[in-house]
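Good morning,

Both structures are done.
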Amino acid sequence: MALFAGVAREKITPKVGGFLFGYNDQTKSDSIHDDLMATALALKSGDTSTIILSIDVCLIHNTICEEIRSKIAAETGIPAKNVILSPTHTHSGPRTMGFGEFGNWGTIDEEYCKSILIPKCIAAGKAAAAKMVPVKMGTSTTESKVGINRRELLRDNTVILGQNPWDTYDSTMTVITFVGEDGKSLANVVHVGAHCTASGINHEVTRDWAGVMVDRMEAESGALTLFINGTSGDVAPRMANGGSTGDIQHAMEVGGLAGIDAVRAYKTIRTFYDEPLEVICGELALPYVPPLSKAELDARLAVPVDGEGWERRERSSYERLAKLYESGDLGPDAWTMHQTILRIGPVVMVPFPFETSSEIGLRLRTYSPFAHTLLLGNANGSNSYLPAESQLCRGGYEVESFKWFRPRQLPNDSDKQLVDQNMMLIEKLK
């Protein structure tokens, strides 16, 4: 069955002077280092169609994701569930997610989302769907050291954000290329997992290291390229300073190395095939753990908390739970999501609306019967971190975020449950 593809891009750069989704609620941009983009890839095979958008922002709030997906569906006729939104996770872009009650990350830039992000994503998706042509697909992988585990373990057994050279990260970079009937590249997809935080607490709007990689791929291939971030939850960009953040020069250096890796993989693709497109959907669910009793909650709230550390964020979770008790409604007993998994020949794409630890993606790839099983981190929404259960005993930023992001907590084995539920869907693919 013939495969069709179309690709389009829209600029989504914010105005200078707006807040950046960086590391505090006061960082504003003072310049544009490079423009942010929304790049859409539309695919069709028989009666099945999908759109994948690579969007140069950090995270996208769940409700904004649903609005974009539903409006693209209305414009294109492609089901909203078949639209995949994949933020690149640059921290040097506008606020498209808010954590007002959870820390000092600020609130969503509603004006930016309304006037730029949402309409431009819709325009890119619509344009890509309107110009699909027959294509064939080729795939290659290479080892890349663009990332490194960032859960640095100190001698006293505490975990900080830094670099951990002996812990897990996913070193596989996957490159997918679609060529038209003329044999020329129409579009590329590059999948690898690492935070786009090399620029650090900067004041330039930038795609961070991924932008350099994308530009190099486009210069070499002559085709628009989508960066799809993978399991970046516990993975930093690998930088010479030994940290998890740097400055704009660090971003350029990491991006240059990533570009070399991507082009190397691209140039090894020799054979292209008509590949079938398949979409499978299902419901995923994680049961919340039983909440603290009202008496236990009152006792914990009676303990004073100073400062803005994790104790304050734990307290915030308790305060939000107290509001649920006051309302008389503790809400549903499970966190649920509608899952959509794409298969394009040997490639399977599995969206996760979390900052997912690298071990989880490696497990999915190992268990999957397909050659290239790619976990898409932060895709189709944002629900904080999803650490591996093996990481919970040591704590650290990712673990504490997972524990206290919600007024009701998810179970410690959330990783296993989601791996199992996604594998049940993957195993139904042809």
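Second structure follows.
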Amino acid sequence: MRGKVARAVKRLIAFALVWVALVVVAPGAHADEGAALADAAQSSDPQVAADALYRMAEAEDAAGDFAHAVQHYRAAVTRLPSFRYAPKAMTRASQLEAHSEGDYRPFARLDAVRRDPKTSDDAAAIDSLARDAEGFPPGPTRGEARMVCADAYLARLHRRADGEAELRRVTDDPKADPLLRRQAAVELLDALLDDGNLEGAREVTESEGKLLDRKQARRIVVASRRRWLHRGSLVVLALFGLLAATAVVRASLRGALGGVWSALRGGAWYALAYAAWLAIAGGGFASAYETGNAEPFYGFAATLLPIAALARAWSAAGSRSAPARVVRATMCATVVLAAAFLVLEAINVQYLEGFSL
């Protein structure tokens, strides 16, 4: 019983020494702090020694002394494989060892940028890292540094050409991590599609086909279809406006413009009532869902008003023959679909994905 109490007291004293070294010692006394940890690491108690070794590794890791950090992470696990930080220590040691190219100098350069949040928006710092990455030895660090630069260029610095160039360097780097290369290929495809560069996107799918799955490659087909629909919708709107305006001008030339104005006044309330119902009822229904968005209904209601006015004027000024009425009805239905497509595309293109567009 006395032996157990003595061991418990020794463990408590050893833990107190570690705590004093980490917390109580005044800032600047790093040498004494390190010495205290080194003494605790030699403790006969495996728990105390493993904890001290782990704390030493964390301090070295933070200071950029990655080689010694790896040694102490592994030593902590060797001293007590079951201690609470063993999985974390082994994971970090393996991660550091995988980035040991160039005696950890490239990784230290990358780590310094990652640790400083100010550099993410600093063009000069990102440019400097991009230049340094060109001289990094082959290995995962080079690819990760280029990804950091690519993300900064694309997301915050708005230098899309530079960001896409960095992504291409990652996909072309055989020594980069395979998952990182796949991520770079997907982000490059996204960037090119956002730019409307379908030719460049096709080149990526052809050259980096092994890094992209069928779903990603199919996005080129969808984007091409969407581009043609966008152009077609604009043509439909322009043609609709031209035909309606032509009919009104002809009615004016033959002195029948009064009938057009009467038709517009008579149908205005119906158009306003329908647009208001669409905006209020549709928008309210969409807003009832947690992820719903009423903007498409508001935008579509706003576009319907001028379309309804032009359709009413065209109907009053145009021919009364059956073929002419069929053409007008078909054209009005088509222009409504074109307007709906353009509204959804302008608000959020993801709404079109449900229609495979």
